[in-house]
Design goal:
With 149 residues, the protein is of the alpha+beta class. The chain has one domain. Helix content is 26%, strand content 38%. A hairpin with a 5-residue loop joins strand 1 and strand 2.
Length: 149
């Protein structure tokens, strides 16, 4: 069973100490995240009860990078693999965060259904994989459980 909208996840950013937030608070912090133009540390991230992480880097008001550091399934430690999707809107960021709150299998679904295996590039010992753009269509088809401002 996943979280409810009253659930809390751990939020982290460069501007605010790590702490548990509700979905409504998460949306507020997303809106308040500065852009790269205004801050070199324009990121926000969330950790669920499975200790999985999603994080976002805000380039402009409505242009984000979505990033998932993948964990080894047994050790739960980062395995030097990242899934990434660029050029997503603030609305999509909020939708992903909402699903992260309520679907404890979200990372598994993204990794197994939307990872582009042949997109691998390696930089500084980190294996980067792209998330297929069809993920955005899948996100739109998921029933919304919350409103967006």
């Amino acid at each position: 069973m996943g979280f409810t909208h009253d659930s809390m996840v751990l939020m982290f950013s460069s501007k605010i100490d790590d702490h548990a937030v509700s979905l409504t608070e998460a949306f507020h912090y997303i809106d308040e995240t500065p852009t790269r133009i205004h801050s070199p540390d324009a990121f926000i991230g969330f950790v669920n009860e499975n200790e999985e992480v999603i994080q976002f880097l805000r380039y402009t008001n409505d242009d984000w990078l979505f990033d998932i550091p993948l964990q080894d399934s047994k050790s739960r430690k980062w395995n030097n693999q990242l899934l990434q999707l660029e050029n997503i809107s603030t609305t999509v960021v909020k939708r992903i965060v909402e699903l992260f709150f309520v679907d404890l299998d979200l990372i598994f679904k993204i990794n197994t259904k939307f990872r582009i295996i042949d997109s691998l590039h390696i930089e500084d010992g980190i294996n980067y994989f792209q998330i297929h753009r069809t993920f955005l269509e899948w996100i739109e088809r998921q029933q919304s459980r919350e409103f967006y401002s």
